[in-house]
Amino acid sequence: MKRCGACGEEFQNQFNFCPVDGETLIERESDAINYSPTIISDVSLAQRLLVQLSFLIERLRLSWAQFTADPIAFLKLQITEARELLRTASARPYLRNALAASLMLVALVIVSVVIYDRHVARPGVTDGYDTGTLAHFTL
To answer: Domain locations in the chain?
Structure first.
């Protein structure tokens, strides 16, 4: 079997070029590891969380050492990195539309909750029943 280095598709040995993207096919070694990217892992959730937690702890250790050495330079670096992240994130084609839609949705939910709350909490307005007088009957 031959494999395309660009798209990863496998083809019979009779082909030399990938029909999908035209790249040269590579002869696949029999002892090569099959790579299959997936979100689901065979490792347990606790082990995956432990890996992420250890990574976070290591990042905090490094950041704390940089912060204690020179807090002003550290903050300037963090602000610069945040600006660069914002600049690259805002370069995505549909970010503004998605952000506007999500903010509109949140605003509509807030307005509907406020309107509902005002409707329910009106003092003295009932659904046609007089709750001001009670009748007592003694037998």
So the answer is: 1-36, 45-91, 94-122
